Amino acid sequence: MGSEIEVAINAAKNEAVTALIRSLNDAQCQAVTTPSQSVLVLAGAGSGKTRVLVHRIAWQIQVMDISMQSILAVTFTNKAAKEMRGRIEDLLNVSARSMWIGTFHGLAHRLLRSHAKQAKLPETFQVMDSADQLRLIKRLLGSLNLDEDKWPPKQIQWYINAQKDEGIRARHCVAGYDLYQQNLLKVYQSYEDLCERSGLVDFGELLLRAHELLRDNPDVLAFYQQRFRQVLVDEFQDINTVQYAWLRLLTQGQDNIFVVGDDDQSIYGWRGAKVENIYNFQKHYPDHQVIKLEQNYRSTGFILKAANAVVANNDGRMGKALWTDSANGDPIALYAAFNEQDEAYFVVERIKAWINEGGKCNDVAILYRSNAQSRQFEERLMTTAIPYRVYGGLRFFERAEIKNALAYLRMMANRHDDASFERIINTPTRGIGMKTVDDIRAIARDQGISLWSAMLLLLDQGRLTARAGNALAGFAQLIKNLDQLVQGIELYEKVQLVVEKTGLLDFHGKEKADKGDEKVENLQELVNAARLFDFNSNLEGMENLGELDMFLAYASLEAGDMQADDFEDCVQLMTLHSAKGLEFKLVFLVGLEEGVFPSQQSVDDIGRLEEERRLCYVGITRAMQHLSISYAESRRLYGRESYPRPSRFLREIPAECIQEVRLRAEVSRPVSSVKVNTAPLQAQGQYRLGQRVSHVKFGEGVILQTEGAGEQERVQINFKQVGIKWLMLAYAKLDVL
User: Are strands 230-233 and 257-261 parallel, antiparallel or unpaired?
Assistant: First the structure.
């Protein structure tokens, strides 16, 4: 037993705490029990960081006598927050509902609801998800006469969110004489004005406004600094500038921050995460302690040795090396596919063998750098009838029919919600044309009022045709009637009434094939979600909100969560970014080619290349027992065929960790001998993939694929002079070169 554990047991006050400590290794125990000060825990993949966070909270409560209400714990997903709360309740055998445990966005929302006036927000402010924000930006571009082809809405959305992540308001930006920057700033300023006028808050605004609330209100800041005696942060390497600034305000002069992170797993730079924060922590908290968690409880020795070797090629790391008490396990399988179809064939054949040997589908994951790579695997899995799921599909609250129903509910809660107005003014279709909508927009823009107010003004002016006026008046009356009808009834009854009275059930029920039935079922499930909504366990501290506002806030925050729903019993397909935090017994890491992984955009940028290498490290460490890596000698991606070089990351894996795989052959040799070049897969007949052949008419070519047998066998050949063609072997008369 380690010395840290012995000291901790002596400090324990009861048997429960002693049992808690005995479940930890020495480094974990040191992290859990170190005296209250600024602590940076470098937690390697699979080293038990969640266990450390939860046990740290339990230790603070049971041994350090810190109240549950005096602890703030920040995570990055609602799922992680829920898991942390549940594990604390299991450890302490008490309810953790009163604790401030949640995501950055959730906790910022809680602060703003409690201090809406000081934050310069209306009490009924509404939270927009990403899709609603994009819709608002599209409308703004139209009102500013900016062509969407030249000013892509998603690019504008990225710009606005990037500014907020850095804590930058439109008034802080200087465009100078650059017309492009001037227009960007113009849209940003107009967007801010519209959100302010409509009482709308996007996800970036939640964080920025919460920071400004603490920064500009010393009494509010002092209250929370005194309240939170311990601030704990998960996934610290993923926080952005404004999140870090928010944390620094809360812990200023307190020496009470405990962060857990891994600089080797910082992979979200493209969305504002700053790996520099994990390095700056040591400057901003000079009286800090660094504790490293390096013992891995997930993967075999060969997998960890490969991961360590790859990430060691990055400069400026804080430095750690994962190790395990487990055996080395099977070597990492390396397969050189002829093309992407061959790669998919290899992967799915391996999965079939796994299933035939008793393995479960949901223990298998196929990880790729880009979503565009999934199609070949999906087709092959469908052909072989293996169930699969593309991870990261639309979550429940992101679905169009659900967002339509929620938009009606939001309009009832806040008439000046322009994003919701835009969504439902003609959904279901009610004869309100685009000219009428444009007239409403013009009045709103000229008068500086909401779309709802502009609509009422347009109706009062009587400038509409009878048909347009009746349609618009009918919409206004519908919202007013709904508001009256829902008074005094249960939340789920309000949702049910809206779903039925708005015509959404009929509207979505008429959609093609079985999609209509599915969408009706989803709308009915929304009613059920409202029926089961637990006001006590959601949005703590929002007691001043009505039930409807609480439910709407919950729906927006859930739609913005980065974590997908729980797994189904099937093979998981996902990007490497989506795989972070997950683990599988059998992992296929595919597409390891230069220009694919690492991506083409990163090969000439040392910072981006190092993030790609960290992404490779994350991918490797998702595997628990078996890891297979593959690359293709030729690949058609984004409509182009290329012959890429194998990824540099393959050369960084020690030769003893890898065993090269060749189908239809018993030969296996160390990767070091050819490193990244293997013999091609044999075709069914006398020809093989990759073989050079000659045709009397088309000239020289290379065999890409074969299919069929006997008289029906045909080959796909890439000819130098005429390109790719399919030929029947019975008539082709090919000569082997």
Answer: parallel
CA torsion sign for 428, 429, 432, 437 is positive
In-domain check, residue 513: yes
Is the domain of 17 the same as that of 106?
yes
Burial 604-620 (b: 16+ CB within 10 A, else e): eeeebbbbbbbbbbbbb
pLDDT for the residue 393: 57
Distance of alpha carbon 214 from alpha carbon 552, whole angstroms: 25
* Sheet hosting strand 288-293, strand order edge to edge: 100-103, 71-75, 230-233, 257-261, 38-43, 288-293
Q: Is the same domain home to 351 and 496?
A: no
230 and 283: one domain?
Answer: yes
DSSP 3-state of 437: helix
Mean pLDDT of the chain: 86
DSSP-derived secondary structure letter, 570: S
What is the distance between the alpha carbons of residues 257 and 38, in angstroms, rounded to a whole number? 5
The two structure tokens encoding residue 587: 């992992």
- Three-state DSSP class for 326? coil
Both tokens of 287, joined, read 């009286």
* Residues 113, 125: Cα–Cα separation, whole Å: 9
Give CA torsion, residues 698, 699, 703, 705, to 10 deg. 0
Against a cut of 0.90, is the pTM above it?
Answer: no
User: In Å, how far from its chain's centre is CA 423?
Assistant: 25
| 517-535 CB burial, b ≥16 within 10 A, e <16 | eebbebbeebbebbeebee
Round to whole Å and give the CA distance between 417 and 194: 10
Band (425; pLDDT cuts 50, 70, 90): very high
- Return the number of other C-beta atoms located less than 10 Å from residue 228's C-beta: 21
Q: Are residues 23 and 169 in the same domain?
A: no
Smallest Cα–Cα separation from 68: which of 86, 94, 90, 87? 94
428 upstream amide cis, omega within 30 of 0: yes
The more confident residue out of 140 and 616 is 616
Report pLDDT digits (tens) over 252-275: 988 899 999 999 999 988 778 888
Domain that holds residue 728: 692-736
What's the one-letter identity of residue 106? G
Catalytic sites, residue numbers? 49-50, 234-235, 265, 622
Phi and psi at residue 84, in whole multiples of 5°?
A: -65, -45
Q: Report CA 603 to chain centroid distance, whole Å.
A: 24
> Tokens 């040392």 correspond to what residue?
606
Q: What would the pLDDT profile of 288-339 be if each residue is shown by its tens digit?
A: 999 999 999 999 999 999 999 999 999 889 989 999 999 999 999 999 999 9
pLDDT tens, position by position, 31-62:
999 987 899 999 999 999 999 999 999 999 98
CA distance 242 to 332: 41
**Domain of residue 572, CATH code:** 3.40.50.300
459 vs 109: CA distance, rounded Å:
36
- pLDDT: which is higher, 671 or 215: 215
Q: What is the DSSP string of 350-362?
A: HHHHHHHTT--GG
Q: What is the pLDDT of residue 674?
A: 34
Q: In angstroms, rounded to a whole number, what is the distance separating the alpha carbons of residues 711 and 53?
A: 65
Rg (CA), the chain: 29
What tokens appear for 17 in the block?
């705490």
Q: Is 152 left (phi over 0), alpha (psi -120 to 50) or beta?
A: beta
Residues 379 and 492 in one domain: no
pLDDT (average), residues 143-158: 87
Residues 459 and 362 in one domain: no
The enclosing H or E element of 22 equals helix 15-22
End-to-end CA distance of the chain: 68
Q: Are residues 190 and 215 in the same domain?
A: no
Instruction: Assess whether 108 and 152 both reside in one domain.
Output: no
Nearest to 507 by CA among 592, 408, 604: 408
Total domain count, the chain:
5
